[in-house]
Write a structure and sequence with these properties.
The complex is a heterodimer of chains A (about 400) and B (about 450). By secondary structure, chain A is an alpha/beta fold. Helices cover about 30% and strands about 20% of the residues of chain A. The N and C termini of chain A lie far apart (about 55 Å). Chain B has 16 helices and 16 strands. The chains are: A alpha/beta (about 400), B alpha/beta (about 450).
Chain lengths: ~400, ~450
């Protein structure tokens, strides 16, 4: 029974009531709101990125633009937000207040600095305030690194290692996580730099630099601020596959605790993030879309799933898929599948026929009843028809004996 | 926004020939598509309309996130008759009415989603919820219709010993003997009653209460509280010439036979169903009788009722259903007499068009016949479905319980206690006849009232 499942987990010595935490962003930028989130049973929150007083934060509005597809709203969300307008003076008070009121919730803070002294000052003050975890934002796409607009710390392995060293030099108690960007040529190189710098974990990964769209009448890009825009950080469902890949690469090749974030929306996403190596999962866009209340769906869904699987803790999931990930060269060339159509459930939309004819191998014909017939000689089993068929349980791949090539 | 998903449904040709359930269940992809249409309003208006108190928006969210187990639990914890309600609840008048998606396309098909959830559950067997520790208190429940079943289940969950006294040979009341199986298959009813039995409720069928076994006697037997959910079992008749002819039945008797006939296959139907038949009345029971007549072989079925289509008490979907099946309506008409042949068999009917003396009052005494609108119908069967009242045989059982002139029981609206201490009531015997969902809501409310009453009496003893 589900009573045996315990959702609590531990990551870098910190105990979380469940694997679901709020990532640094709009849902964690107000202390009253975070309290409501804790009351709803979120296990922790990373307060929105703070900095020192001399860094003036001036936001622009509007800062959000949605990515829609056909009738689906917000499959992605782009923002040109910056770090919090609340500086460390205010945030340290919030940390203390939250810890006092919610001692069993994990209070983390995302931080950012311009120079060594800033980074270290913030860390010391937060630790004094009782912070449980420090997350360094090395990856806000709207920020700038030195003179290069849009450049991020986490795109430079050397700089990454140096700054991690500064932060770890100041942090005496709280584990330090580095939030990185997927926007690099080699994520493993950055992961290794983070590890070598001495960080305790990686938060993988941040939003992805994007251009959300353009108004076809005015030619103005979105989100439009007085006629202009800049590149947005893309989040939400659309980036989930990228996040999964980033977590998997880091887990396989770096070996460091990972807090997964970027596109997780449902409990199924959480399972997937953990299967490729995440120790917990952070949420932002899903909450921006449906509110703190999604925690109920996440908790119930994960509990029932684990119970069905005969597992008692989400930590049993961590990394289970990693051995099943390999390089392309090593995938079996002996494995042969072909498509198979369920003639009973087929609704005759011809979509498999069209895609195979124009983008596959011309392996599907329509019979006199307009039902698709697979030519198993021509079908290579690419899987496109399976991906396209709108009917559940209609087109499938079946394993067949591989024939010797003549 | 995507279109409202239509569940699989029997074709018209197929459905009028059998008592097979007309509506089917969503396959999973349809359920998820329908759930995904839900806007998940913060102040979900659907939730407020459910008489059984189901957290609708929550179970829809669980379907959307493919967490069917939680969806099942959410529905089941509020409604022990959730499978029944998914089929017969007038959701268009309740939870779906204020749905925010109505403005975009159409309301979410909440009934079909609940049906999906409960059908999934029944395939695996209904899981028993946690029960409170036994309190040592005993409650007698009179009648086994929806109000009684809901009350009994809640009382059992609260740890009380519950015994149902049912006069008929099968439990379920209107669910078993009233609603025909093409709308409500009996295996669904029996599965949910079995579940209630598994909660620890004892059901004594064929056990009529009378002057010897009345309320006082039950208290004497050690019951600490009594719930009366006896329903309204006495049919009203128009009181017109010809009602004593062979072929005139009350809908109550007719539908009861329809349901028994369904449960014992191959038996000959005991009542006279002619090629042409008439149902008098404009409520859901009339629609059920008319559509059952078609399924029993009647070729032409008429409905005569005082109300216009807009005024009929039947749910719009039920009226539509009967129209689709070819039932011919004679609205705003008053029955005058039933005609018979020399053998005392029904052979025809005479009626007349009416207008209302006072608008908004749909009682027969307010109907003024319009001269020159007389009409006659050739029919061999007449079924009267003009309502039911409290059974006068209940009176000797109800000593000390105040009732209305019509024999309905008066209760405190909050806790559902009657004028006699420790005696509670709910369902049709209190409200005069309403939806199954309302009866369930009242049964639940009364169960809470009883639990609180028993708690205070436990305190009083210590």
């Amino acid at each position: 029974m589900s009573s045996e499942v315990n959702l609590s987990i531990e990551l870098c010595g910190i105990k979380f009531a469940n694997p679901f935490i709020l990532s640094a962003g709009p849902p964690t930028d107000d202390v009253k709101m975070v309290k409501r989130a804790f009351e709803a049973d979120w296990a922790g929150a990373i307060l929105k990125t703070t900095s020192v007083e001399n860094q003036v934060v001036e936001l622009v509005y509007p800062m959000m633009a949605g990515l829609d597809f056909e009738d689906k709203k917000l499959i992605g969300l782009g923002n040109i937000d910056l770090i919090s307008e609340h500086h460390i003076d205010e945030v340290e008070g919030r940390v203390a207040e939250l810890k006092k009121e919610f001692p069993d919730r994990v209070v983390g803070t995302s931080i950012m600095g311009a120079k060594k002294e800033d980074w270290q000052t913030i860390v010391r003050r937060l630790e004094a305030a009782g912070v449980d975890l420090i997350e360094c934002s090395f990856s806000c796409p709207q920020g700038s690194l030195g003179e290069k607009p849009g450049a991020m710390v986490a795109q430079d392995p050397k700089l990454t290692k140096t700054i991690v060293g500064w932060v770890k030099g100041a942090a005496k108690r709280a584990p330090v996580f580095i939030k990185i960007t997927p926007q690099v040529a080699d994520i493993v190189e950055i992961g290794q730099a983070v590890k070598e710098g001495g960080a305790d974990g990686i938060t993988a990964s941040n939003t992805i630099p994007s251009l959300m769209g353009i108004n076809l009448d005015t030619f103005e890009p979105y989100p439009t601020v007085d006629g202009k825009s800049s590149y947005s950080g893309l989040s939400g469902v659309a980036i989930k596959p990228i996040t999964l890949r980033v977590i998997a690469e880091l887990a396989k090749n770096v070996g460091i605790p990972i807090s997964g974030t970027g596109g997780a929306t449902t409990w199924q996403d959480v399972v997937e993030f953990m299967l490729v190596g995440a120790g917990n999962v952070q949420f932002c866009t899903a909450v921006m879309r449906n509110g703190y209340r999604i925690i109920d769906d996440l908790k119930d869904g994960l509990t029932n799933y684990l119970d069905d699987k005969g597992m008692s803790s989400p930590s049993e999931l961590i990394g289970r898929t990693l051995p099943k990930l390999t390089v392309h060269d090593e995938l079996s060339r002996e494995y042969k599948v072909v498509a198979e159509v369920n003639r009973k459930t087929c609704v005759k939309d011809d979509l498999c026929y069209i895609t195979c004819r124009d983008a596959g191998h011309e392996a599907i014909e329509l019979d006199e009843e307009r039902l698709p017939v697979i030519d198993e000689e021509k079908c290579v089993g690419c899987g496109l028809c399976v991906a396209i068929c709108p009917v559940w349980d209609c087109v499938k791949l079946k394993k067949v004996e591989k024939k010797e090539k003549k | 926004m995507a279109e409202r998903q239509k569940p699989p449904t029997l074709s018209l040709e197929k459905r009028v020939k059998s008592f097979e359930e007309v509506k089917g269940t969503y396959p999973p992809h349809q359920a998820i598509a329908e759930a995904a249409r839900c806007l998940f309003c913060h102040d979900a208006p659907c939730n407020k309309e459910c008489p059984a108190g189901i957290d609708i928006v929550k179970f829809i969210r669980r379907i959307k996130t493919k967490d069917f187990r939680s969806a099942i639990r959410t529905v089941r914890e509020s409604n022990v008759l959730a499978g029944v309600c998914a089929r017969i609840c007038p959701t268009e008048k309740l939870c779906e009415k204020p749905c925010s998606a109505t403005e975009l396309v159409k309301p979410i098909n909440i009934a079909a989603l609940q049906r999906f959830v409960t059908d999934l559950e029944m395939r695996e067997g209904i899981k028993l919820p946690k029960k409170a520790a036994p309190t040592g208190k005993k409650v007698a429940v009179i009648g086994s219709g929806p109000a009684s079943l809901a009350a009994a289940a809640e009382l059992a969950k609260a740890g009380h010993g519950v015994t149902i006294f049912e006069v008929k040979s099968l439990p379920g009341g209107v669910l078993t003997y009233g609603i025909p199986s093409y709308r409500l298959p009996k295996d669904v009813v029996m599965a949910e009653i079995d579940f209630i039995k598994q909660l620890g409720v004892e059901i004594r069928t064929d056990t009529p209460l009378d002057e010897k076994l009345n309320i006082g006697a039950l208290f004497g037997q050690g019951f600490d509280a009594i719930f009366i959910g006896a329903g309204v079992g006495r049919p009203y008749f128009v009181r017109m010439p010809g009602e004593d002819l062979n072929g005139v039945y009350s809908a109550l008797e007719f539908l009861s036979q329809v349901n028994l006939y369904q449960s014992e296959e191959k038996k000959e139907f005991p009542l006279r169903v002619g090629k042409r038949a008439l149902v008098i009345g404009g409520g859901n029971v009339a629609m059920d009788a008319a559509c059952s007549l078609l399924r029993l072989g009647a070729e032409k079925v008429h409905i005569v009722c005082l109300e216009s289509f807009e005024e009929m008490p039947a749910f719009p979907s039920e009226i539509e259903f009967a129209k689709e099946e070819g039932v011919e309506f004679h609205p705003r008409s008053k029955p005058l007499k039933i005609l018979g042949d020399s053998n005392g068999m029904v052979s025809g009917f005479e009626g007349i068009g009416i207008r209302w003396k006072e608008p908004g009052n749909f009682s027969p005494s307010n109907a003024i016949p319009i001269e020159g609108t007389e009409f006659s119908l050739e029919v061999e069967t007449v079924i009267e479905a003009i309502g039911q009242g409290s059974d006068p045989s209940l009176a000797p059982i109800l000593s000390g319980v105040k009732t209305t002139e019509r024999g309905l029981i008066l209760v405190d609206e909050e806790i559902h206690m009657t004028s006699r201490e420790g005696v509670f009531a709910g369902g049709d015997i209190v409200n005069g006849g309403d939806t199954v969902a309302r009866a369930i809501g009242e049964g639940k409310k009364a169960a809470e009232g009883i639990s609180n009453y028993l708690k205070s009496s436990i305190k009083g003893e210590s």
